[in-house]
Amino acid sequence: MRIQLLFIISFCCLGQLFSQDQKPAYCDNLPSTYGSVVVPPGGSPPPPLPRFATIAQTEYKVQVAILRDSDPRNFPFHPTLVARYRPCEQVWVVESRESFANRSEADALKNQLIGLGYQGAYITDLVAYN
Questions:
Q1: Res. 6 pLDDT band, cuts 50 70 90
Q2: What is the domain extent for residue 91?
Q3: Has this prediction a pTM greater than 0.85?
């Protein structure tokens, strides 16, 4: 009975590990610039990424945690936060659900989250396209 229980628990844990271990193809052989591409040995280059008539604008998010060996579903985070998986680094980033065009709004959320106990909250820059 004990061996069966251990087997079932191990199987469940391995399933969770393997579901997150698969990385997208873009994690390997990253191109150095937006316009460059990596050609696999013996292969042909993939088509370049599309370009749009947009303007880059700085926006801000508030991050409160980076989880390497933890599942964010096991923690009751604040409703203003989301957890986003970064497959190349194999980490979960817990950050604000919204991004802010105005840094003072991001600062206000950061201070609110610090007041709620997220002492390590910090602001990160994003580039948004409009």
A1: very low
A2: 56-129
A3: no
